[in-house]
Specification:
370 residues; alpha/beta; 2 domains; eight-stranded mixed β-sheet; 33% helix
Protein backbone atom coordinates (compact mmCIF):
# COMPACT_ATOMS: atom_id res chain seq x y z
CA UNK A 1 0.00 0.00 0.00
CA UNK A 2 1.10 3.59 -0.58
CA UNK A 3 0.89 5.67 2.60
CA UNK A 4 0.76 9.46 2.21
CA UNK A 5 1.80 12.10 4.76
CA UNK A 6 0.80 15.65 3.74
CA UNK A 7 2.04 18.66 5.67
CA UNK A 8 -0.46 20.01 8.20
CA UNK A 9 -1.94 23.38 7.21
CA UNK A 10 -4.03 24.27 10.26
CA UNK A 11 -2.95 27.49 12.00
CA UNK A 12 0.31 26.86 13.91
CA UNK A 13 -0.04 23.09 13.58
CA UNK A 14 3.51 21.74 13.68
CA UNK A 15 2.84 18.06 14.37
CA UNK A 16 3.25 15.35 11.75
CA UNK A 17 1.27 12.10 11.57
CA UNK A 18 4.16 9.74 10.83
CA UNK A 19 7.73 9.92 12.12
CA UNK A 20 10.76 8.68 10.23
CA UNK A 21 10.75 5.65 12.56
CA UNK A 22 7.18 4.91 11.48
CA UNK A 23 8.15 5.30 7.84
CA UNK A 24 10.97 2.81 8.36
CA UNK A 25 8.60 0.24 9.85
CA UNK A 26 6.30 0.54 6.83
CA UNK A 27 9.02 0.37 4.21
CA UNK A 28 10.55 -2.67 5.89
CA UNK A 29 7.21 -4.37 5.32
CA UNK A 30 7.25 -3.54 1.64
CA UNK A 31 4.96 -0.51 1.68
CA UNK A 32 5.72 2.81 0.03
CA UNK A 33 5.64 6.06 2.01
CA UNK A 34 5.20 9.44 0.31
CA UNK A 35 5.89 12.50 2.48
CA UNK A 36 5.40 16.14 1.53
CA UNK A 37 8.60 18.15 1.77
CA UNK A 38 8.91 19.86 5.16
CA UNK A 39 6.06 17.90 6.75
CA UNK A 40 8.16 16.90 9.75
CA UNK A 41 10.19 20.05 10.30
CA UNK A 42 7.86 21.44 12.94
CA UNK A 43 8.53 18.34 15.02
CA UNK A 44 12.25 18.40 14.32
CA UNK A 45 12.24 15.63 11.68
CA UNK A 46 14.11 16.47 8.48
CA UNK A 47 13.34 15.36 4.95
CA UNK A 48 16.69 13.56 4.90
CA UNK A 49 15.66 11.47 7.89
CA UNK A 50 12.54 10.36 6.01
CA UNK A 51 14.64 9.56 2.93
CA UNK A 52 17.05 7.51 5.06
CA UNK A 53 14.03 5.59 6.37
CA UNK A 54 13.03 4.67 2.80
CA UNK A 55 10.32 7.27 2.25
CA UNK A 56 9.97 9.42 -0.85
CA UNK A 57 9.80 13.20 -0.54
CA UNK A 58 7.51 15.09 -2.93
CA UNK A 59 7.08 18.83 -3.32
CA UNK A 60 3.34 19.32 -2.99
CA UNK A 61 0.38 18.07 -0.98
CA UNK A 62 -1.43 17.35 -4.24
CA UNK A 63 1.22 14.79 -5.16
CA UNK A 64 0.77 13.07 -1.81
CA UNK A 65 -3.01 12.90 -2.13
CA UNK A 66 -2.84 11.77 -5.77
CA UNK A 67 -0.38 8.94 -5.20
CA UNK A 68 -1.43 7.51 -1.84
CA UNK A 69 -4.40 5.37 -0.87
CA UNK A 70 -3.96 5.63 2.90
CA UNK A 71 -3.64 9.25 4.04
CA UNK A 72 -2.44 9.81 7.60
CA UNK A 73 -2.73 13.27 9.14
CA UNK A 74 -3.00 14.79 12.57
CA UNK A 75 -5.90 17.22 12.12
CA UNK A 76 -9.01 17.06 9.96
CA UNK A 77 -8.81 18.07 6.28
CA UNK A 78 -9.37 21.80 5.86
CA UNK A 79 -11.46 23.16 3.00
CA UNK A 80 -8.41 23.64 0.77
CA UNK A 81 -7.74 19.91 1.02
CA UNK A 82 -11.24 18.63 0.28
CA UNK A 83 -10.71 18.77 -3.51
CA UNK A 84 -7.95 16.15 -3.25
CA UNK A 85 -10.08 13.47 -1.55
CA UNK A 86 -11.21 10.46 -3.61
CA UNK A 87 -13.69 7.63 -2.94
CA UNK A 88 -10.83 5.11 -2.69
CA UNK A 89 -9.01 7.07 0.01
CA UNK A 90 -8.67 5.76 3.53
CA UNK A 91 -8.31 8.79 5.82
CA UNK A 92 -6.84 8.19 9.28
CA UNK A 93 -6.65 11.25 11.55
CA UNK A 94 -8.53 13.33 14.15
CA UNK A 95 -11.86 14.42 12.66
CA UNK A 96 -14.18 15.55 15.51
CA UNK A 97 -17.07 15.57 13.06
CA UNK A 98 -19.74 16.49 15.63
CA UNK A 99 -18.33 20.03 15.83
CA UNK A 100 -18.48 20.73 12.06
CA UNK A 101 -21.38 20.15 9.70
CA UNK A 102 -19.45 21.46 6.64
CA UNK A 103 -16.64 18.95 7.23
CA UNK A 104 -19.15 16.15 7.73
CA UNK A 105 -21.00 16.99 4.52
CA UNK A 106 -17.74 17.26 2.57
CA UNK A 107 -16.52 13.84 3.70
CA UNK A 108 -19.90 12.25 2.93
CA UNK A 109 -19.77 13.75 -0.54
CA UNK A 110 -16.19 12.57 -1.09
CA UNK A 111 -17.12 8.91 -0.66
CA UNK A 112 -13.89 8.32 1.29
CA UNK A 113 -13.61 6.12 4.36
CA UNK A 114 -12.90 8.26 7.43
CA UNK A 115 -11.35 6.58 10.45
CA UNK A 116 -11.12 8.94 13.43
CA UNK A 117 -8.35 8.58 15.97
CA UNK A 118 -10.65 9.89 18.69
CA UNK A 119 -13.29 7.15 18.41
CA UNK A 120 -11.06 4.09 18.01
CA UNK A 121 -11.46 2.14 21.24
CA UNK A 122 -9.33 -0.29 23.20
CA UNK A 123 -8.62 -1.47 26.74
CA UNK A 124 -9.16 1.47 29.07
CA UNK A 125 -10.90 3.80 26.63
CA UNK A 126 -9.60 5.61 23.55
CA UNK A 127 -5.92 4.74 23.00
CA UNK A 128 -5.34 7.19 20.13
CA UNK A 129 -6.96 10.10 21.95
CA UNK A 130 -5.26 9.49 25.29
CA UNK A 131 -1.77 10.89 24.53
CA UNK A 132 -3.16 14.17 23.19
CA UNK A 133 -5.58 14.39 26.12
CA UNK A 134 -2.63 13.99 28.49
CA UNK A 135 -0.79 16.83 26.76
CA UNK A 136 -3.84 19.10 26.47
CA UNK A 137 -4.67 18.57 30.14
CA UNK A 138 -1.19 19.59 31.21
CA UNK A 139 -1.07 22.52 28.80
CA UNK A 140 -4.45 23.78 30.02
CA UNK A 141 -2.93 24.75 33.35
CA UNK A 142 0.11 26.38 31.75
CA UNK A 143 -2.22 28.48 29.62
CA UNK A 144 -4.60 29.17 32.50
CA UNK A 145 -1.70 30.40 34.64
CA UNK A 146 -0.43 32.65 31.83
CA UNK A 147 -3.78 34.26 31.06
CA UNK A 148 -4.50 34.71 34.75
CA UNK A 149 -1.70 37.28 34.73
CA UNK A 150 -2.76 40.94 34.58
CA UNK A 151 -0.87 41.89 31.36
CA UNK A 152 -2.83 39.21 29.47
CA UNK A 153 -6.19 40.37 30.85
CA UNK A 154 -6.47 38.11 33.88
CA UNK A 155 -7.11 38.75 37.56
CA UNK A 156 -3.43 39.11 38.37
CA UNK A 157 -3.36 36.01 40.56
CA UNK A 158 -0.34 33.73 40.98
CA UNK A 159 -1.36 30.10 40.64
CA UNK A 160 0.55 28.93 43.71
CA UNK A 161 0.24 32.07 45.79
CA UNK A 162 2.96 32.98 48.33
CA UNK A 163 3.19 32.69 52.12
CA UNK A 164 0.43 34.81 53.59
CA UNK A 165 -1.54 35.05 50.32
CA UNK A 166 -3.97 32.41 49.12
CA UNK A 167 -3.22 30.42 45.98
CA UNK A 168 -5.54 30.36 42.97
CA UNK A 169 -8.69 28.26 42.86
CA UNK A 170 -8.88 25.87 39.91
CA UNK A 171 -12.04 24.01 38.90
CA UNK A 172 -11.57 20.97 36.66
CA UNK A 173 -14.76 19.68 35.04
CA UNK A 174 -14.36 16.08 33.96
CA UNK A 175 -12.36 13.42 35.75
CA UNK A 176 -10.99 11.65 32.66
CA UNK A 177 -7.54 11.86 31.11
CA UNK A 178 -7.68 15.63 30.46
CA UNK A 179 -9.01 16.43 33.90
CA UNK A 180 -6.62 14.16 35.75
CA UNK A 181 -3.58 15.64 34.03
CA UNK A 182 -4.84 19.19 34.52
CA UNK A 183 -5.40 18.58 38.22
CA UNK A 184 -1.94 17.07 38.67
CA UNK A 185 -0.21 20.10 37.18
CA UNK A 186 -2.40 22.63 39.01
CA UNK A 187 -1.85 20.83 42.31
CA UNK A 188 1.88 20.70 41.64
CA UNK A 189 1.87 24.48 41.18
CA UNK A 190 0.22 24.85 44.58
CA UNK A 191 -3.31 25.77 43.48
CA UNK A 192 -6.44 24.77 45.36
CA UNK A 193 -8.10 22.33 42.97
CA UNK A 194 -11.63 20.95 42.77
CA UNK A 195 -12.42 18.12 40.35
CA UNK A 196 -16.00 17.49 39.21
CA UNK A 197 -17.51 14.45 37.53
CA UNK A 198 -20.77 12.47 37.51
CA UNK A 199 -19.06 9.08 37.88
CA UNK A 200 -18.89 8.33 41.60
CA UNK A 201 -16.46 5.46 41.18
CA UNK A 202 -14.12 7.77 39.30
CA UNK A 203 -14.44 10.41 42.02
CA UNK A 204 -13.61 7.81 44.67
CA UNK A 205 -10.50 6.82 42.76
CA UNK A 206 -9.41 10.44 42.26
CA UNK A 207 -10.04 11.24 45.92
CA UNK A 208 -7.75 8.37 46.84
CA UNK A 209 -4.82 9.13 44.52
CA UNK A 210 -4.74 12.92 44.18
CA UNK A 211 -2.65 15.22 46.43
CA UNK A 212 -4.26 16.80 49.50
CA UNK A 213 -4.85 20.12 47.75
CA UNK A 214 -7.25 18.40 45.32
CA UNK A 215 -10.84 17.79 46.39
CA UNK A 216 -13.64 16.07 44.50
CA UNK A 217 -17.23 17.18 44.00
CA UNK A 218 -20.21 15.70 42.20
CA UNK A 219 -21.04 17.64 39.04
CA UNK A 220 -24.51 19.16 39.14
CA UNK A 221 -25.99 22.60 38.53
CA UNK A 222 -25.91 23.81 42.13
CA UNK A 223 -22.33 22.68 42.74
CA UNK A 224 -21.12 24.23 39.49
CA UNK A 225 -22.77 27.56 40.33
CA UNK A 226 -21.31 27.56 43.83
CA UNK A 227 -17.78 26.91 42.52
CA UNK A 228 -17.93 29.57 39.81
CA UNK A 229 -18.50 32.36 42.34
CA UNK A 230 -14.91 32.16 43.58
CA UNK A 231 -12.93 30.38 40.88
CA UNK A 232 -9.84 31.70 39.07
CA UNK A 233 -9.38 29.07 36.33
CA UNK A 234 -11.85 26.55 34.94
CA UNK A 235 -10.70 23.65 32.75
CA UNK A 236 -13.38 21.90 30.69
CA UNK A 237 -12.44 18.32 29.90
CA UNK A 238 -15.78 16.66 29.17
CA UNK A 239 -15.71 14.06 26.38
CA UNK A 240 -18.50 11.87 24.98
CA UNK A 241 -17.10 9.61 22.29
CA UNK A 242 -17.82 11.02 18.85
CA UNK A 243 -20.64 13.26 20.10
CA UNK A 244 -21.03 16.98 20.68
CA UNK A 245 -19.90 18.04 24.14
CA UNK A 246 -22.62 19.16 26.58
CA UNK A 247 -22.62 22.77 27.83
CA UNK A 248 -21.72 22.54 31.51
CA UNK A 249 -21.20 26.31 31.87
CA UNK A 250 -23.84 28.48 30.20
CA UNK A 251 -23.73 32.15 29.30
CA UNK A 252 -25.73 33.21 32.36
CA UNK A 253 -23.10 31.60 34.58
CA UNK A 254 -20.39 34.04 33.46
CA UNK A 255 -21.88 36.88 35.51
CA UNK A 256 -21.22 34.81 38.63
CA UNK A 257 -17.49 34.57 37.97
CA UNK A 258 -14.83 37.04 39.10
CA UNK A 259 -13.73 39.46 36.37
CA UNK A 260 -10.51 38.27 34.78
CA UNK A 261 -11.12 34.59 35.55
CA UNK A 262 -10.04 32.17 32.80
CA UNK A 263 -11.99 29.43 31.03
CA UNK A 264 -9.89 26.81 29.19
CA UNK A 265 -12.12 24.65 26.99
CA UNK A 266 -10.20 21.50 26.07
CA UNK A 267 -13.44 20.03 24.68
CA UNK A 268 -13.57 22.66 21.92
CA UNK A 269 -12.77 20.03 19.26
CA UNK A 270 -16.15 18.47 20.08
CA UNK A 271 -17.99 21.79 20.11
CA UNK A 272 -16.92 22.92 23.58
CA UNK A 273 -18.38 22.32 27.03
CA UNK A 274 -18.92 26.05 27.69
CA UNK A 275 -21.81 27.71 25.84
CA UNK A 276 -19.74 30.80 25.06
CA UNK A 277 -16.79 28.86 23.63
CA UNK A 278 -15.70 29.67 20.06
CA UNK A 279 -12.71 27.86 18.49
CA UNK A 280 -9.55 29.97 18.56
CA UNK A 281 -6.04 29.51 17.17
CA UNK A 282 -2.48 29.76 18.44
CA UNK A 283 -2.26 33.05 16.51
CA UNK A 284 -5.15 34.52 18.50
CA UNK A 285 -5.75 32.14 21.40
CA UNK A 286 -8.06 34.12 23.70
CA UNK A 287 -11.02 36.45 23.72
CA UNK A 288 -13.08 38.06 26.46
CA UNK A 289 -16.76 37.41 27.02
CA UNK A 290 -18.56 39.24 29.86
CA UNK A 291 -15.26 39.90 31.60
CA UNK A 292 -14.10 36.28 31.48
CA UNK A 293 -11.06 35.21 29.42
CA UNK A 294 -11.76 32.27 27.08
CA UNK A 295 -8.93 30.06 25.80
CA UNK A 296 -10.37 27.71 23.17
CA UNK A 297 -7.50 26.66 20.90
CA UNK A 298 -8.64 23.66 18.88
CA UNK A 299 -5.19 22.12 18.46
CA UNK A 300 -3.55 22.78 21.82
CA UNK A 301 -0.92 19.99 21.57
CA UNK A 302 0.41 21.57 18.38
CA UNK A 303 2.20 24.07 20.62
CA UNK A 304 4.51 21.32 21.89
CA UNK A 305 4.82 19.68 18.51
CA UNK A 306 7.83 17.45 19.08
CA UNK A 307 6.52 15.93 22.30
CA UNK A 308 3.04 15.62 20.80
CA UNK A 309 4.23 14.06 17.53
CA UNK A 310 6.15 11.28 19.21
CA UNK A 311 3.42 10.69 21.80
CA UNK A 312 0.77 10.47 19.08
CA UNK A 313 2.71 8.29 16.67
CA UNK A 314 3.70 5.88 19.44
CA UNK A 315 -0.03 5.19 19.75
CA UNK A 316 -1.09 5.31 16.09
CA UNK A 317 1.80 3.46 14.44
CA UNK A 318 0.54 -0.10 15.11
CA UNK A 319 -2.85 0.85 13.67
CA UNK A 320 -1.30 2.47 10.58
CA UNK A 321 0.75 -0.68 9.97
CA UNK A 322 -2.33 -2.83 10.38
CA UNK A 323 -4.36 -0.82 7.87
CA UNK A 324 -1.47 -0.89 5.40
CA UNK A 325 -1.00 -4.64 5.84
CA UNK A 326 -4.64 -5.72 5.68
CA UNK A 327 -6.36 -2.87 3.85
CA UNK A 328 -10.02 -1.92 3.91
CA UNK A 329 -12.22 -3.68 4.85
CA UNK A 330 -10.25 -6.68 6.11
CA UNK A 331 -8.62 -4.85 9.04
CA UNK A 332 -12.09 -3.92 10.33
CA UNK A 333 -13.67 -7.35 10.17
CA UNK A 334 -14.64 -8.69 13.60
CA UNK A 335 -12.75 -5.94 15.43
CA UNK A 336 -15.22 -3.71 17.23
CA UNK A 337 -12.47 -1.39 18.47
CA UNK A 338 -11.52 -0.53 14.90
CA UNK A 339 -15.14 -0.46 13.72
CA UNK A 340 -15.81 2.20 16.38
CA UNK A 341 -13.22 4.35 14.65
CA UNK A 342 -15.12 4.46 11.35
CA UNK A 343 -17.22 7.64 11.33
CA UNK A 344 -18.06 7.93 7.62
CA UNK A 345 -17.64 5.31 4.89
CA UNK A 346 -18.60 5.34 1.23
CA UNK A 347 -20.91 8.33 1.68
CA UNK A 348 -22.64 6.94 4.78
CA UNK A 349 -22.48 8.09 8.41
CA UNK A 350 -21.57 5.08 10.53
CA UNK A 351 -21.10 6.61 14.00
CA UNK A 352 -24.10 7.36 16.19
CA UNK A 353 -22.63 10.54 17.69
CA UNK A 354 -22.20 12.14 14.26
CA UNK A 355 -25.65 11.01 13.15
CA UNK A 356 -27.24 12.50 16.26
CA UNK A 357 -25.30 15.77 16.06
CA UNK A 358 -26.76 16.63 12.65
CA UNK A 359 -29.85 14.40 12.44
CA UNK A 360 -28.31 12.38 9.60
CA UNK A 361 -29.21 8.78 8.68
CA UNK A 362 -27.12 6.18 10.46
CA UNK A 363 -25.80 3.15 8.57
CA UNK A 364 -24.00 0.27 10.27
CA UNK A 365 -20.44 -0.52 9.25
CA UNK A 366 -21.57 -4.06 8.56
CA UNK A 367 -24.09 -2.81 6.02
CA UNK A 368 -21.43 -0.69 4.32
CA UNK A 369 -19.15 -3.72 4.18
CA UNK A 370 -21.87 -5.76 2.51
Amino acid sequence: MIVGVPKEIKDHEYRVALTHAGAKELTLRGHRVVVQAGAGLGAGITDQEYISAGAEIVDTAEEVWNRATLIVKVKEPLKAEWKHIRPDHLLFMYFHFASSRPLTDAMIESGATCIAYETVTGPGGHPLLTPMSEIAGRLSIQQGAKYLEKPTGGRGTLMGGVPGVKSARVLVIGGGVVGTNAAKIAAGMGARVTMMDINLERLRYLDDVMPRNVSTLYCNELNVVDQLKRVDVVVGGVYISGAKAPHIIRREHLSLMPRGAVLVDVAIDQGGCFETSIPTTHSKPVYEEEGVIHYCVANMPGAVSRTATFALTNATQPWVIRIAEQGWPDCMTDDQNFINGINIAKGKVTLAGVSQAFDLPLTSVEEVLR
